[in-house]
From TrEMBL:
Species this chain originates from: Amycolatopsis tucumanensis
Residues of the DUF6801 domain: 36-190
Signal peptide: 1-23
Keyword GTP-binding: no
Amino acid composition bias (Low complexity), ranges on this chain: 198-256
Protein name per UniProt: DUF6801 domain-containing protein
A family per Pfam: DUF6801
Top-level lineage group: Bacteria
Database matches in InterPro entries: DUF6801 (IPR046542)
Positions of region (Disordered): 193-256
Taxonomy of the source species: Bacteria, Bacillati, Actinomycetota, Actinomycetes, Pseudonocardiales
Keywords: Signal
Length: 425
């Protein structure tokens, strides 16, 4: 996603710089520029993107001659981490727009330019990296003074829109990413020599013609052209320097893991008592995009159980949950699976309102393994529903009536259904 956007961005930047370059009547030379950008994105964090800009830009143009339009191409390779992030939210395609800033420094002025570009619909593969290709046409430009013009590429603003296969939005929606060019790079796309024009150069009797035309801007240009014609020879070699940055742009900057925080609401049904226990709490997870594995800290608030034994004996109990270690699991193919180990505590048990156990150590003798699974299309940004079953081990440390209390809850087939909702940051 990030890279897809970046690719279009690059195309935009190249296009806008090319806009001011122009082709003139001279032969155009192919140029190529490779730049690294630091781009912040939701879900996958900040990524370092490599963007390659290529175009046919003239080495020389003439004053007063409009330049024809030409095509600029930008190619960005989407890293596997970004692909994983897109597939996690169910994105089948990514599209959007880019605004790339460039600067044209010419004898008459230094011109900042921002040119919008469209990022075409690009399919997202199931895994691995993929390339995005963006192209743009540069409009005509006319220079008014002789000398040289330098085209440099700047930062990029991306607007990205990942979509599902049916065309609907993912949990990412539409978002912006301000991509900053990594410092220390040669960002010169091209340097162009601007000649004074073939019709004015033969004028060798300048002293006789300058007096009546001293105020004419066009007659003074030939005198300034000749001393500046040698300047491009010192700057033209800079168009090949971007190749030195290529070895440092072959890798992205994947995060070690992405953090998610959810509020949890739901309930659990204890089979033996046919009693529903309300559940609330939260879970803080860290997801490794490269593998789809995650670890999490689960916390459940104390709750209460109400049941009727033999259809006429009311039983109430306080219920607490103690997590044993981390919750672990996977998010793959749009399905989330998690495993938690939880010790169930009953610090208070009452029958007919009279306490039969008040031991804070009354608990299951072994942690319950709780396995939860989502339905298809689980979106880590939007949350979703999870369900599963678990067993309760025999209770211990519940006082003299442990033997009576334990059978009331012990056994398999207990169910749990919860909904995860993203916490507001």
């Amino acid at each position: 996603m990030v890279a897809a956007a970046a690719s279009a961005t690059v195309a935009t930047g190249a296009a806008l710089t090319a806009v001011l370059a122009g082709a003139g009547t001279s032969a155009a030379d192919p140029v190529s520029l490779t730049l690294n950008y630091s781009c912040p994105f939701p879900l996958i964090g900040t990524q370092t993107l490599q963007i390659v800009i290529s175009a046919d830009i003239p080495t020389t143009v003439n004053v007063g001659e409009p330049t024809p339009a030409f095509t600029v191409t930008a190619v960005a390779t989407v890293p596997p981490t970004a692909t994983q992030g897109l597939t996690l939210v169910g994105a089948a395609t990514v599209e959007g727009s880019a605004q790339a800033s460039s600067t044209v420094t010419a004898p008459e002025a230094t011109i900042p330019v921002t040119v919008p570009a469209t990022i075409p619909v690009t399919p997202v593969p199931a895994s691995g990296s993929f390339d995005t290709v963006a192209t743009g046409d540069a409009p005509s430009l006319t220079f008014t003074q002789a000398g040289q013009a330098t085209i440099t590429v700047g930062d990029i603003l991306l607007t990205l829109h990942p979509k599902r296969a049916d065309g609907t939005d993912t949990g990412l929606g539409v978002f912006d990413s301000q991509c900053t060019q990594v410092a220390g790079q040669n960002n010169t796309l091209a340097t162009i020599t601007i000649n004074g024009g073939t019709t004015t150069e033969p004028t060798t009797t300048e002293p006789t013609t300058t007096e009546p035309t001293t105020t004419e801007p066009t007659t003074t240009e030939p005198t300034t052209t000749e001393p500046t014609t040698t300047e491009p020879t010192t700057t033209e070699p800079t168009t090949t320097e971007p190749s030195t940055t290529e070895p440092t742009t072959t890798t992205s900057n994947p995060p070690t893991g992405i953090d998610y925080s959810y509020a949890l609401e739901g309930d659990s049904v204890v089979k033996k008592l046919n009693a529903t226990v309300p559940l609330s709490g939260g879970i803080d997870a860290n997801l490794d995009l490269a593998t789809g594995n995650f670890t999490a800290d689960l916390s459940l608030e104390p709750s209460k159980l109400k049941a009727t034994l033999f259809h006429f004996i009311p039983i109430t109990a306080k219920v607490a949950f103690e997590q044993e270690g981390k919750t672990t699991g996977t998010l793959a193919g749009g399905v989330l699976n998690s495993t938690s180990h939880t010790t169930i505590k009953l610090p208070s048990v009452k029958v007919f309102g009279f306490p039969i156990s008040k031991s804070p150590k009354c608990q299951s003798s072994e942690p319950s393994e709780i396995n939860l699974t989502s339905g298809p299309g689980f979106d880590p940004l939007a949350g979703g529903d999870l369900s599963g079953t678990y067993a309760i081990a025999p209770l211990e440390n519940c006082g003299p009536l442990t033997g009576l209390i334990s059978p009331l809850a012990t056994g398999p087939g207990n169910t749990i259904d919860v909904t995860l909702s993203p916490k507001e940051s």
